[in-house]
Design a protein that fits this description.
Blueprint: E1 2-9, H1 13-22, E2 29-34, E3 55-62, H2 64-80, E4 86-92
Helix pairs in contact: 1-2
Length: 97
């Protein structure tokens, strides 16, 4: 199993939830009002007067066979909405209770 951490502009919330539903990824944890700045390009999302946009983040533990398709969907969503921003990070889940 893998953990997939997706950070995205709040404007993409419905699209991310739709994507998870379509891939039958039921379990996730979501954080709203996440502040940050991407490493490559884009404006900070800090929820301030100067930088008013805000991110959300979703963490889901998925079976290995769903990782590549989910990453492809995230990449496609990012290519359509380059100015808004979405990133996904994957790491191994070695144990869970």
């Amino acid at each position: 199993m893998k953990a997939i951490f997706i950070v995205y502009n709040q404007a993409l919330t419905e699209k991310v939830e739709f994507m998870l539903d379509r891939l039958e990824i039921r379990g996730y944890t979501k954080w709203e009002d996440v502040h940050g700045r991407g490493t490559e390009k884009g404006d900070p999302h800090l929820g301030t007067h100067t930088w008013p946009e805000i991110n959300s983040a979703t963490l889901s533990i998925v079976e290995d066979n769903k990782v590549d398709i989910l990453l492809e969907k995230v990449q496609k969503l990012d290519s359509i909405n380059e100015d808004i921003g979405i990133r996904a990070f994957v790491w191994e889940v070695t144990r869970s209770v």
